[in-house]
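call fold(seq) -> tokens
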Amino acid sequence: MANASGFSLHAGVAAEAHERQKLERLCRYITRPAVSEKRQSLTSGGNVRYQLKTPYRDGTMHVIFEPLDFIARLAALMPKPRVNLTRFHGVFAPNSKHRALVTPGKRGKVNTLKASIETEALSTGERRATMTWAQRLKRVFSIDIETCHACGSAAKVIACIEDPVVIRKLLVYLEGKVIPQPPALLPSVRVPPQVRLFD
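ret:
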């Protein structure tokens, strides 16, 4: 057990690769839902009854919510969109003066003269050494737009159109250029062959 700067770390328990029961327990622990379904039930009046894991000091064993109030409390547990849920400390913290020296993108607050000179010597592309949006599409959605589907050679992005009006005009134009495919010919309908079981 270690305590430093207000943080505590307990590293006395470990799970080896062959300890399958320990690993299963760990996986079940980290994938558990925020609300236990086993302790949740509906009352005869249609309200949500939730049994507490640990009773309150006054002896309360369960709480009852109206359905909309219960959903509102569940929604409050959801993180807001585009909120970074990962917190970095030490040299990886956003305000660390050494962050630019240890991250691949060389981004962060740079207060030392040496680091400032090194950062200025880098080109714009080197300073922004993060993944491009095309690389992110490939990594997240397996959509590779940097390779030509016809010949397999490297494709070059020549434009990035973000204006909705222009995008709509292009899509309407391309829909007019699509050659209609003839409908697939279906085989003629026929009755199944008659099988004679007995002569």
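The chain has seven helices and five strands.
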